[in-house]
Amino acid sequence: MTCSSCEVGIDHCHGTLVEHVSGFVECTDTDCVGFGAERHSLVIDCEAVEGGCGCTAHPQLIAQADPSAMGVETPQDQLLRAS
Ligand SMILES: [Zn+2]
Ligand SMILES: [Zn+2]
Ligand SMILES: [Zn+2]
Questions:
Q1: Which of 31, 49, 57, 73 is the most buried (most CB within 10 A)?
Q2: The organism sits in which domain of life (predicted)?
């Protein structure tokens, strides 16, 4: 894969930088040599990772944040559907 940064020789990465809630950062490119956001064209929160990320699996925290966004059914949801 070649992009404009490749052509001009800028240090960059084609992977997706994933920033975890805990502050841990990783890249989808196994050959990645630096986890700086500035050298990645795509930076996402680990909560946006397809299938979710284990580091956000804290039920209490998720419930307080936004249960509907996590696809977790609340008792209220179930009541609404039953009625
Ligand atoms: Zn490139
Ligand atoms: Zn995570
Ligand atoms: Zn990378």
A1: 49
A2: Bacteria
